[in-house]
Amino acid sequence: MSESAASSEFEDAFHKAAERHERVWVFVAVLMLTLLLAGTMFLVVYAYGVVVRTAGFRRDPAAIEAPEGSIAKTGPNAYTVTIVARLWRWSPSPLRIPKGATVTFRVTSADVLHGFAIQGTTVNVTAVPGITGSVSYTFNRSGTFNIVCNEYCGLEHQGMLGRIVVEGDPA
Amino acid sequence: MSATAFPTVLPASIDAPADALAPQRRTMLAFLVWGFSALMIGAMIGPLQALNYGGVNAYPSLTPLLKTYYQGLTIHGVLNAYIFTFFVTCGLLVYLPARELGLMPNMALWRGCFAAMALGTLMLLVAMFDNSSSVLWTFYPPLKGSAWFYLGMTLVVAGSLMPLPILLDLRARWKARRPGEITPLVTYMSLTTMLMWALAGGGALIELVVQLNPWALGFTDTVDPIVARTLFWWTGHPIVYFWLMPAYVSWYGLLSKQIGGKLVSDPMARLSFALLLIFSLPVGSHHQFTDPGFSPIWRGILTALTLSVALPSLITAFTIGLSLEYAGRLRGGRGFIGWFTALPWRDPSVAAQVLAMLTFIFGGAGGIVNGSWELNNIVHNTTWVPGHFHITVGTASALTFMGVAFWMLPHLTGQRLLSRRLALASAWLWFTGMSVFALGMHWAGLHGVPRRAWVSMLPRSVYDRVYGDAHLALILVAVGGCILWLATIAFYTVFLGSLATRRLDRRPAIPFAQAFGGRESYALDGGAPVGVVAHPSVSKLARALEHLGLITAFTALATAAAYVPIFWPFLQNATAAHGWKVW
């Protein structure tokens, strides 16, 4: 048997196996992606609070409704707070809330894009000039959380930090 | 159409008369050198940003060249993500198909493409180096850079679309001469990439022409930030496939030949590209999962579509992996892993591309996390994201292009590569540096360290209080950046040095791969009598995928369907924002 015939035989065998494995692989890939999608959707339903919803539009980004930075008590341990992002500060900050509180954050910007992220949580909202986004989150752990601006907003972007202090019972 | 003095069918072998193919080679070389020069500047700045995260602020010592971290980051992002990739891609995706088909491309259009993008690059450089436009590569308004920036960007985007008519013309001429045959693979992949990009580029072009150019020139006072952002991501997500697909062209169309094997499946390569065309377009707003203003229902649909775009890459992983295995076994590799070590690792072009693929396995996995809606909340705009795209575009694409340059420079210039060993070293250093850097960036992102932040400017106490948890991760970022500095120096020693080496006796050929059941290469029979050449095994799938016009039309409709509901509330509730120059 010549060398090229042997190589061709190897190629044929490899090709046949390849086609069989290819079908299995595509099936496995589709199955894996379907399971990932199911898992993702479960997570969304499970923690729907941090899905960004729309709480209003306004034509002029600077026209923020008063009173700015207020905290409103909306339930036994539930609060709504309007967070306004400006070059280069968060208001209100620091924000004091009791442990276990469910806080609805209404986040907007008065000038350029900013990003409202609370370190160590899943709260992550773009502060868009002219649009107010809304998420809710329950703080079950006491301590100090950093608000970090995570959307580039100019020279002092890195210093645009805020604080949420969750005051809890030591028990 | 072609008003060139050259014959339209050229013998494409290496012994062809030099004068006939020389213009194509020269133009390709110009694209390659311009693109890689952009990367050189961008990559030299990169490690400064990595050091920044490690707490080392190098910028004060660099004034007046670079005033701030944000200026350096803007230059780094624009040059690497746009200029480098666009030039290499717009060169490769015309040159390779033209040589595969043995036809002369429309040189006027191709040179026009170069000229438009080169002029755009110069305008961008002026706007970035004078610190008037430190708006980063995403240039989100209402941050307002100078008009030079937006006009330059417009020229670059418009220029990058010009290979499409060149490819359509090449394919039409080839089809007219070979009725009934399917488009050769490299041409098919290149054309699909450009069709995808033509649909994708619409977003950025509209943003620039309708919103940003008139605003920067003073014809309008205000801009709608969310509309601009959404238009940007209409282009900004598919652009990642404009970075990636040319690397796939090399992996599918060339690499199997370079490693001494064959491509195991030509139809699967076509299927991957068709799926990338369809799925990459409608999903751009998954970059806006954290933006208010559009319905959660669309976020869910975007999640499903985004996961779908992983499928063609998973198919690619299989097909390319198997092609590597085939070559490895032919080369005597045995056992479970022996085929992998048996690959020609001493060839820097092969080593660079295989290392790029390895990195992309992790890049792709991270991408699935980013696309998974709520998981994105944890990583969005943290260092995780640049960590992710440095092992995708920054390695899977860039290191592949570097690997392509290692065979292409000698092919284009007819001169030897300066040093095979140094080329190998640069590939391994790039791979190592990026891996360490990306590990640190991903890890730090999970601790909530934001991307694009001049954290080394913060007082030490603040840096430690806010980012102290990520200390080890941030050290890895800085170390990775330093290794990448070495990689860059090694690579450019080889790249620039190879432009001034002694001549080869023989110009290396383009390594067009042969597929299982396919013919050797179309490139080898340029000039042969034209007619229907019996194709041993044209699969039904490959034939169905020839209908690129239909696939493109379907994609355009799907894109429109995805974007109308997203834009609707934004257009109903317009915002008028004034510009800010705050850097």
From TrEMBL, chain A:
A Pfam family reported for this protein in Swiss-Prot or TrEMBL: COX2
GO molecular function: copper ion binding; cytochrome-c oxidase activity
Source organism (scientific name): Methylorubrum thiocyanatum
Gene Ontology CC entries for this record: cell envelope; membrane
Domain of life: Bacteria
Protein name from the UniProt record: Cytochrome c oxidase subunit 2
InterPro entries linked to this entry: Ba3_CcO_II_C, CcO_II-like_C, Copper_CuA, Cupredoxin, NosZ/Cyto_c_oxidase_sub2
Keywords: Copper, Membrane, Metal-binding, Transmembrane, Transmembrane helix
Transmembrane regions: 24-49
Family matches, as SUPFAM superfamilies: Cupredoxins
Compartments in which it is found: Cell envelope
Start and end residues of each Cytochrome oxidase subunit II copper A binding domain: 76-171
TrEMBL record, chain B:
Alphabetical list of PROSITE patterns matching this protein: COX1, COX1_CUB
UniProt-listed SUPFAM superfamilies: Cytochrome c oxidase subunit I-like
Transmembrane domains' residue ranges: 29-49, 69-96, 108-127, 147-168, 188-211, 231-255, 267-285, 297-324, 350-369, 389-410, 422-444, 472-497, 548-571
Domain spans labelled Cytochrome oxidase subunit I profile: 24-496
InterPro entries attached to this UniProt entry: Cyt_c_oxase-like_su1_dom (IPR023616), Cyt_c_oxase-like_su1_sf (IPR036927), Cyt_C_Oxase_1 (IPR000883), Cyt_c_Oxase_su1_BS (IPR023615)
Domain of life: Bacteria
Pfam family, one: COX1
Any Gene Ontology CC annotation: membrane
GO MF, one annotated term: cytochrome-c oxidase activity
Keywords assigned by UniProt, alphabetized: Electron transport, Heme, Iron, Membrane, Metal-binding, Respiratory chain, Transmembrane, Transmembrane helix, Transport
Subcellular location: Membrane
Topology of this chain in the membrane: Multi-pass membrane protein
GO biological process assignments: aerobic respiration
Family per record: Belongs to the heme-copper respiratory oxidase family.
PANTHER family found in the cross-reference section: CYTOCHROME C OXIDASE SUBUNIT 1 (PTHR10422), CYTOCHROME C OXIDASE SUBUNIT I (PTHR10422:SF40)
Name of this protein: Cytochrome c oxidase subunit 1
Organism listed in the record: Methylorubrum thiocyanatum
